Known about the structure:
Chain A is α/β, with parallel strands linked by helices and 111 residues long. Chain A has 3 helices and 5 strands. Chain A: Residues 4-111 form the STAS domain.
Amino acid sequence: MNLSTEVIEKADKKKILRVAGEVDAYTAPELKANLNPLTEEEGVEVIVDLTDVSYIDSTGLGIFIGALKSAENHGATLRLTGLNERVKRLFTITGLDEVITIDDENTEEAK
Amino acid sequence: MERQSDYLEMTLPAKPQYVGIARLTVSGLANRLGFSYDDIEDIKIAVAEACTNVVNHAYEETGNMNLSCNVFEDRVEMVVADTGQSFVLEELDQNLGPVDSKKPIDELKEGGLGLFLIDTLMDKVEISGENGVAISMTKFLQRDEVENNVDGVSTETNAQEQK
């Protein structure tokens, strides 16, 4: 029931947030605190790597909606990558996959 | 009418760090009962969503949440209940649905998907509220001889999934 995050700056305008663990009501605030500041810079491409995320629920989904809004407002972009089938399924059920850009497979940058 | 085999119950503080404890408990129970991997994950999410609702909405200050599980031969029935203010109940039914991708991003809500998920992932869902809110969630064991078609809040969605 823990979460860890790590920010990797690939280039001037590209930032990768690697998330590992479980995103729920307890850990979501930490994700939010680490993710939102990345989206507040104009022109930046934020990639969230969820390869090592084993569990997510609506609280976590809400964090990504918030981050997407923040990115929009600041002229940044948000993209999710590395989702396992279960995590991806939640985005599909809730229709969030229509709103948030989600990679089908890991991108080279995030590896 | 039918034999009820087992009952278990736990009371937890309505705090975020205990949602995971409820999740682990039902995960262990569902695993023991022989639910599939996907069903176990569905049960974990549904119970966590119900507990998260309690944590976020039930109490102005502190309170408890109660998780009880009735184990039947063909299903498990889990109830998450609180003794807080049941004001949420009136707002509940209105916004059950997925995200509308046609809406401007600014208008998307960051909450409110929890009940929709419970409704989608469980076979039968009942919400009641007198002294607090109680959400009852039933998941059937997927066996060939088991009749799965029960009237629930979400028959349409789940009927598709069960085929």
